[in-house]
Records
---
Amino acid sequence: MVKTEPARVRFAPSPTGHMHLGSARTALYDFLIAKQSGGKFIIRIEDTDRKRYVEGAEQELLDGLKWTGLEWDEGPDKGGPYGPYRQSERKEIYLKYAKDLILSGNAFYCFCTAQELEEKRQKQLKVKENPHYDGACRDIALDEAEKRVTKGENHVIRFRAPNSGSTTVNDLIRGPITVDNRLIDDHILVKTDGWALYHLAAMVDDHKMMISHVIRGSEWLPTFPLHALIVRAFGWEEPVWVHLSVFLKPSGKGKMSKREAADLMKDGYSIFVKDLEELGYLPEAVINWIVLMGWSLDGSTEFFTLQDLVEKFNLRGLNPSPAAINFTKLDHFNGLHIRNISTEDLAGRIKPFLEKSGLITDDEILLKIAPIIRERIVTLDDVVEMAGFFFKESIEHVIEDLVVNGLTKDESKKILQDAITIITPLKIISSEDTEIKMREYVESSPYTPGQVFGIMRVAVTGQKVSPPLFESMEIIGKHKVIERLSRARGILNE
């Protein structure tokens, strides 16, 4: 369902590591809302946590979005009317708004040292209290606090959370959530080094960048009431809040985390977008896969292109229930999308995988290969094992594979010689004509089609499993086919 008002949505990753599936799904939902409403999709880099900052992570995030086809309208590389789009370049903006909160009584300077706070924390734990700020600096007069700040005393700025009553917030897919205000801590908004934390920075940026929908992970639910209180303290209109479902491990037991990535890679899977690209997954398939982990159109439709989703996606179809990551589904979607793209497109996409393996490719041959492998590969990198033989000058034969079950070595050698005798007079190898002649041979021989074609397949491709034999022979060409048949016969002679 297309929204009537243009939405302004932001994807706001922290450059602290590889872009994972959760981030990609958030960005996808943002993109779809923007495009279907004629709005704007904004990239904002939340890089104020300098201790966790990873060099190159921002570029990897942007590259991952480009690969998935999620083009943005405003961002650190494109600019826009509400920049800068890196939080590290907006420090003074946050300080200004933090001081506004102090002046309005909604925030205060706190001079408690880290040691004092830790001692209080340990005491609270001993009496089985949840660790919390005890309000030691809440009642310091503003003029006194400002004098201490002016003198250079170390301090942070904390939000003054209400200590009575309750706060109700509304999540689009979860409905109203009510929290006792006594459970909301006086969270730090600005650290001693002057850097604003997410609680303040994101709220300020969402307001100043005119963000209409805040779509984010469910890990922000515990501080959701705090964020709404900060927005309300400024008197701003709240965005539409959407907290997405959690990703579970493939087993369905426990939340999916980055730590499982190493184990997944052993099986050829990953939760990181960059890895999925290198493993040979199509961005179209990844998009199709992740959109359904937490959303459904009608409970039955599963195949979507990005354009389909722009037309059909609806936030009301989101489900807050945890979603198990099913890599079998990813393989399924990858196969569907491989079969959905054009021959020319598929040829272009398999080329880098062949060349990465050290093979020298030929565009004309790639165009011939693409139609006969598209039903046989699950990921693009399968092409190396499935069709690498097309680009090899010679192939390695395993003698055991050349002797088919039920036949002797001499019988296998005879089949190869007979095949050479049949093919040699042909001007060229045409898949249709060659197959007819070889089937006539089978009918007049004591051998089965499986035996004859099985030996020929191993001799010509070096593999027990390959694309269709006679189409492959036509692409390889008469000279090379006879050469490979002869070499296989020679190996049996030895």
---
Amino acid sequence: MPETAKILQFPSRPAPALGALDALRSATAYFDSRSQDGADERRSRLLETPEVLLSLCALLRERVESAASDVLGEASDLYRAISTTTRRLGVFDERDYFLGETAILAGTASRFFGQRAEAEIWFDRAEANFRHTVNPTPLLAMVSYQRLALRCEIGQYREVAELAPMLATSFRRLNMPREHAKCIYLEAIALKQAGSHESAIEKFEAVIGMGISDLEPGLVGSAFVSLADIHAADGKHERASAACSQGLGFLAKAKRPAAMAYLKSVLGESLRRQGDKAGSIEVYGSAIAEYQALGMSTWVAYNRVVLAQVLLENGNSREAEWQILAALPTIEEARMVPEGFAAVALLRESVRQRKTNPQALSELRQHLQARS
């Protein structure tokens, strides 16, 4: 019988593999020096060590919330560097994987800033590249999660409430507990925004009870804050205060500045409903400052509108006008309301006449709240 088999040369690595700790140190050093001269040359050398690049992607993922601008810039530059390089990257599917990973990082950071059209394009790029990897199923599921979060942000709550449990089942079968919990949390957010408070409370409590506080303290803390928001809206201020206190510890542990800012806005609303206008104004001002520090302009604009409403109720009409005038450019530039939304035009004219229209302000807040 003729011998027809052929022994193929197994591809070898261009350099010895680094240990996990050394790779993390190199990734951290690279990220910390990103703004110095020679960044392009260092980025090019980085592509020669997939282990360091993998650690860098993990580092960027952890810093999306606290340094979203830096993550967006670095992930975008990495994507372009990988897509244009002619050298081999890794041994198997590393090139496709890292193109997908940097794209989803850039998309997540874009979504964080409210740049939804840009985020969608990045998610398209991530999906296209992940499809060529050896095991695309969990990676494509992560893109689906980001797209679902995007749909939630534009107010498609019914669709998110329907689809999130299906995606949660996929993550559970893939043995991805963090992503499984995030899907349940996303479903709870959609239910909350749709006004189904009892169902939302059940889902938030499910997230809290999943035993993932060590893995995802920020998610558990955010669930507590969302519960506080519901309780405050329902006039259950003691429960709201207790939930805020419980969430605070988890958020401090997770170092989630955006969630901490959201907690302050929830507390501000609770104080407003209890009649403590001065306390509410102070807390909302603090939340706005934190959102500004994070570069979250759409959240800054939304909270300025809410603060303006509290200021009007407290008789501080001139201060309310300042907040409105500061918020309107972002609202219009980011297309946070439909073109020609009557409340915006009415509000702008009333402020121009130095007589702010409370009804127009209330309508604008309700519209923004439904999509915040």
